[in-house]
Design brief:
The protein has about 170 residues and is α+β, with helices and mostly antiparallel strands. It is about 30% helix and about 35% strand. The strands form 2 sheets. It has a 6-stranded antiparallel β-sheet. A two-stranded antiparallel sheet has the order 3-4.
Length: about 170
């Protein structure tokens, strides 16, 4: 069983490598074998209706897609990029303005080529939306080594000597 703190740090590095996720402030709440919770903090940049303050559905979809795509880190023994093949989101109702939204995902089936994931977005005990998604396994070798090392937390010697953290 992998250490939840190591999994959370790995997921955090992956989420931070995605510019749009940094912009909206997605962060890891908890990670463990085959389960992940991410949080979307409330901010003006995710509001869909300025008069009501309701969060834009696209921000909720981004939260759910990212949570689903990131839970594969918690499901697979080693990091590999797994692009989204299909994502079906069912919205139950709008999120309450002014409050963060969390998403919880788990991988319920894994094959050599496809991962099947389910997720729910919620505030407290209220489900905002739920989704099912599939992700294609492209294989560890198809993920660039430098990117794998970044996600794994391995800093390349040349980069650390320059002090250049750079973008992935």
């Amino acid at each position: 069983m992998r250490d939840p703190l190591v999994l959370a740090a790995t997921v955090e590095r992956f989420v931070d490598s995605l510019a749009h996720c940094r912009k909206i402030g997605l962060c890891v709440v908890s990670a463990r074998e085959n389960e992940l919770i991410l949080e979307l903090p409330y901010s003006d940049c995710i509001v869909g209706n300025p008069e009501s303050g309701v969060i834009h559905g696209g921000a909720i979809t981004t939260l759910m897609d990212t949570t689903c795509g990131s839970v594969v880190i918690c499901a697979l023994p080693q990091f590999e990029l797994c692009p989204t093949l299909d994502l079906r989101v069912d919205y139950m109702h709008a999120a309450a303005p002014g409050r963060p939204v969390r998403a919880r995902a788990s991988c319920f089936r894994e094959t050599n080529s496809i991962l099947f994931v389910r997720c729910e977005a919620y505030q407290d005990d209220t489900i905002i939306a739920h989704c099912v998604a599939t992700f294609m396994r492209i294989g560890r070798e198809a993920t660039p080594l430098a990117y794998r090392n970044t996600i794994a937390g391995i800093i390349e010697a040349a980069q650390s000597e320059k002090g250049d953290e750079g973008c992935v």
